[in-house]
Amino acid sequence: MSTSFEANFDGLVGPTHHYGGHSFGNVASTSNANKAANPREAAKQGLAKMKALADMGYKQGVFVPQERPAIGLLRELGFAGDDAAVLAAVAKTSPGLLANVSSASSMWTANAATVSPSADTGDGRVHFTAANLQNKFHRAIEHGQTTRSLKAMFNNEAVFAHHDALPMQAVFGDEGAANHTRFCHDYGKAGVEFFVYGRQHWGGGVEPQKFPARQTREAGEAIARLHGLSADKLVFAQQNPAVIDAGVFHNDVISVGNQNVLFSHEAAFLRQAAVYAELDAKLGGGLQVVEVPLAQVGIADAVKSYLFNSQLLARADGRQNLVVPDECRATPAVWEYLQGMLASNGPIAELMVFDLKQSMQNGGGPACLRLRVALQEQELAVVNPHIWMNDSLFTRLNSWVDQHYRDRLTEADLADPHLMTEVRTALDELTQILHLGSIYPCQLT
Question: Which annotated residues bind substrate (predicted)?
């Protein structure tokens, strides 16, 4: 019996899910701006994915949304009066600001934090560093709540270490686990932590010209120090600037890894062969690379389908399942490649296709929705037990969504004071369902 596991914690889509087009460099986000969203459907699509993986025996947890709109932040920006007055004032004078402080982007928990398991860290604890997400205003406001939420989930200081976000400066731009992967032969033994960056602030080098490189090498180096990681188990690689300019805003839009398998595009990294060689050497051999040729899947199709924004899930037979969004099936070149890949009898054995349209249209696929945490059996035992997906929680959360979520939301609806009340009522109930305590601003004031 295994005594170590990889758990996935998926972000529960928040009640203010809307298409604001806030994320420059994310093609899906900007191209769907101002369309009407369906928060209820979005939340249920995410819950269905969580339940399916839990039913297959994977450790699957729920990561809570953030309170939006962020009224406290608006007060810091000079808006005054009671909460309804603040909301009315910002809606009248700066609707763009209101849309940003109402974003439900915390649903993409791959950006919540970087996680190092106890087998890798200097003090033998599981380490979490909340991502500062400083490149985008609507996401840069998340890290305080992210840390509170993580501490309520992983609330034993002897087992879990929590670090605040890195300084909110471009030199330490950190996008969390979307640019971090861990390779290992066993989840409970020391692995190789792989940090991918878009630019190096000190030391120069090539950078993308059209879209921002959100992650820096300096951020990864700082996190490695904070987590007490060993240099001989670290690999830093630069993402290909050309693919960033083609809409690959995070590494998890062009590659994904799990255990000893790396599924990546031919154009993912600079000096790609050297990256593979270093990973394999530091892993102690046995790295299996599944590389998708540019001639078979172009970058535009990879971005449109989110082929690489997928999940690799370990199987008992030593191979991997690949979780992909339905958009892969709808993209002919991608679907043809995937059928050929399966027929090759390589390390990826099976496809699992999910309808995540609401998330996809806002710029995030299966990998964006989840934060991975490798846990030993004794660590698993002290995680908040109420956040694990099961039959009863699935039923209860679906009922909760039906009760509190709207089935249509536009940017204009964000000015509705009733929506603010609905959100707060819903989140207060959610913290009771999941036994998280008082973690939201509306509960702490």
Answer: 20-29, 111, 138-139, 214, 252, 362
